[in-house]
Amino acid sequence: MHTPLPHGHASHGPGACCCGSPMLQQFHERVMADLSRRQVLGGTAAVMAMFAGLSVPSVVSAQPRQANGPLLLTNLQLFDGSGSAVQSGVSVRIEEGRIHSILPADATAEGAEVFDCGGRLLMPGLIDAHWHTTLAAITQTTAMTADVGYIHLVAAQEAKRTLMRGVTSVRDVGGPSFALQRAINEGIVDGPRIFPAGAMISQTSGHGDFRMRHDIPRGSTTPLSEQEHQGVAAIADGEDEVLRRTREQLMLGASQIKLMAGGGVASLYNPLDSTQFTERELRAAVDAAGDWGTYVMVHVYTPRGIQRALRAGVKSIEHGQLADEEAARMMAGEGAWWSLQPFLQDEDS
């Protein structure tokens, strides 16, 4: 099948170079996006490797900059995150948006624009490993009742505020973050790099089932709930449905998959200590994510839920505050990440 080229583009004959064709440009963009996505898959080693070529946020300052030119940061204190003491008497050279070298304070500019940091601390960008794009700045009640456009506008504002607080990468752990990720990547709005999970996959009655009592039961022809339409959550029961919903999020661009494997404090109808999804259902998501070169994270608190998830191959436990010693040892033995968040409403947190 021949696809006509856009107006103004000549077709290439046999043997001619088509390196600049729109098709190959789209292929290149997809490959580069995939490489960016996979940076999050290598754990600590990947994080340190990312610092070796750390990108500079686009909102460094309001001072004029040379477009794509080298930059020399001076008059600063350097914290490199390696455990070493804060360094003074150094400058940092940036080329093509990445750290090129650490130089003495009196290093010559050699064609670079000089930026005086005013004695401030320079450090690697922070990474928030548990961030909800559309919930970071609003309450759950607002998220469920406000206009969709309002929710996303607030999310964009909070993304910029997050970046300006020094967080340059976030792992989104569920919700409609693909549009904001694209807007940031295209320079439309300012914000951190987003590694999206897409919709939170939940069983019926699970932590991601936000339907009201009057929405039950769901029939074979019942439409999706509003939260499912918006990409907040995806309800799945049985291995086949879990497999489908997982593949849908991967198709949309998820860099990791989020399942609800236990109850929570922010949902109406599922007890905190409930265990959700069977091991076989969890395994269906793990296998699909593995085929895509990525992993599954789960929301879970209890030892039983943690152990079931680990047996299914889950690689990241979100929350897990009720873990016992056996569950903690199992996490360590399986090489899983424990992404522990405090209950910020607790008076002693």
Walk me through this protein's architecture.
- The protein has 349 residues and is of the alpha/beta class.
- It folds into two domains: 55-122, Urease, subunit C, domain 1; 126-339, Metal-dependent hydrolases (TIM Barrel), CATH 3.20.20.
- The protein is built from ten helices and 15 strands.
- The protein has helices at residues 22-38, 43-52, 140-145, 148-164, 178-185, 226-230, 239-252, 279-291, 303-312, 325-334; strands spanning 71-74, 77-78, 90-95, 98-104, 113-116, 121-122, 126-131, 167-172, 193-195, 200-202, 233-235, 257-260, 296-300, 316-319, 337-339.
- The strands form five sheets. It has a four-stranded mixed sheet with strand order 4-3-1-5, with no helix packed on it. The protein has a four-stranded parallel sheet with strand order 12-13-14-15. A three-stranded parallel sheet has the order 7-8-9.
- α7 runs parallel beside α8, α8 (279-291) crosses α9 and α9 (303-312) runs parallel beside α10.
- The chain is elongated and about 70 Å long.
- The model is unreliable at 1-16 and 38-66 (pLDDT under 50).
